[in-house]
Amino acid sequence: MPQQRKFTLKESDIPTHWYNIMADMPNKPLPPLHPGTKQPVGPEDLAPLFPMELIKQEVTSEKWVEIPEEVRRLYSIWRPTPLYRALELEKALGTKSKIYYKYEGVSPAGSHKPNTAVPQAYYNMKEGIKKIATETGAGQWGSALSFACKLFNIECEVFMVKVSYEGKPYRKIMMNTWGATVHASPSNLTNAGRTILEKDPNSPGSLGIAISEAVEVAATHDDTKYSLGSVLNHVLMHQTIIGQEALKQMEIAGDYPDIVIAPFGGGSNFAGIAFPFLENKLTGGKNIRAIAVEPTSCPKLTRGVFRYDFGDTVGMTPLIPMYTLGHNFIPSPIHAGGLRYHGAGAIVSQLLKDKIIEADAINQTECFDAGILFAQTEGIIAAPEATHAIAEAVRQARQADEEGVSKTILFNLCGHGHFDLSAYEQYLEGKLVNFEVTQEEINESLAELNTPVI
Ligand SMILES: *Cc1c(COP(=O)(O)O)cnc(C)c1O
């Protein structure tokens, strides 16, 4: 019998509940603060932006939150997702370790993001909302939310960072195909956008600016809410279906990971795969290392500070206790657009501070080296974000071999790279460069912060 490669589940194995790690954390995250008063925000402060059910999920300490039947039914369009043993990659590395990966690229949008887009659109529909405004960087979140909104006939308005809007037309066409309206940000449709354009008519835009625009649209229209694809507690919780499925699949494989790895932007796909395994660790069961991997060009977890900071550039969002490089930090234009965010979610930040999880930073050429090796062995062309997890898995396998031990490694392959082929083209032509941030750049950005210190 050859070794089993693929571990699949039935539709009836789609999880019935989301896992809320807050219930098991030794130290709960500090509360978010109102941007004006600097007092803890209450549900009424968030009500203009989010439907009440999501606000409840944001603060609940209930350990298991039931997934609505309608959401589970729609999850089955792409779930359960497969888990593979990377036998060909193991062979190419000549490693004694076992490497598994969970593949989230089989969703309609090609990433893990529909896992939260669908329930977010569902709760908005339930509360009679007609339109959702959001931002997108390279287009992953915008396309996931466009798809989800169409399922519930909600209008979707996306502010897309201008450089991506101009440079990555296909993600925009995907959003249009699912019926969404897409604007290049900064736009002249909002005060936030107009303010930026007055200062710099040629502004390339940033995620922070686009968030400010979308939040403003939601805050100033009664029938419109805002939606975020990462960072917030409820978003991380929705993603835990990834790890719950992976737990079952590892059981079928007769294995249990020593190390769980995921790329890190705001924390949602990392939380998704790692939290269900951390439940076992936190409640006294099995030990495990969980490693979040960020780019060296945007190293908030490994080189940022832990303090309150805004989620956006203009300072309209609540202040979140987070590892941050400062909300004015503009990362270099690396290809892993989904990882170019200045901060991390509150839960993940607290877990890192308490040393329950670990973080590592890898530069983009090492990531693409691993991505090419992965494509040429396992066949899948990974999203640039996802190559960070592959590169870390390769690091860990090589280190185990050096130490003469065998590890079981699981990583999240959070998306495919079919719309990122220009990045692969640059790599293949030898034109891909690395961006290291200097300590001066980080210090400068942090010196501008006047947010509360923790
Ligand atoms: C958005 C995105 C990320 C980063 O966001 P997280 O919330 O940290 O998961 C990573 N990979 C892909 C493919 C993405 O689309």
Q: Which key terms come to mind for this protein?
A:
single chain, 19 helices, Rossmann fold, 454 residues, binds pyridoxal-5'-phosphate, 4-stranded parallel sheet, 7-stranded mixed sheet, alpha/beta
- The overall strand count is 15
Tell me the fraction of residues in β-strands, as a range. Answer: 15-25%
Strand order of the largest sheet: 1-4-5-15-10-11-14
Q: Specify the CATH class of the domain at 69-110 and 232-448.
A: Alpha Beta
Number of helices: 19
Give the rounded overall mean pLDDT: 95
State Rg: 21 Å
Largest β-sheet summary = 7 strands, mixed
Describe the overall structure.
With 454 residues, the chain is α/β, with parallel strands linked by helices. It has 19 helices and 15 strands. The chain has a domain of 259 residues: Rossmann fold. 41% of the residues lie in helices and 16% in strands. Strands 1-4-5-15-10-11-14 form a seven-stranded mixed sheet, sandwiched between helices. Strand 6, helix 6 and strand 7 form a beta-alpha-beta unit. Helix 3 runs antiparallel to helix 5, helix 5 crosses helix 6 and helix 12 crosses helix 13. The protein starts with 5 loop residues before the first strand and ends in a 7-residue tail after the last helix. The site of pyridoxal-5'-phosphate (PLP) has 20 residues, from helix 6, helix 13 and helix 17.
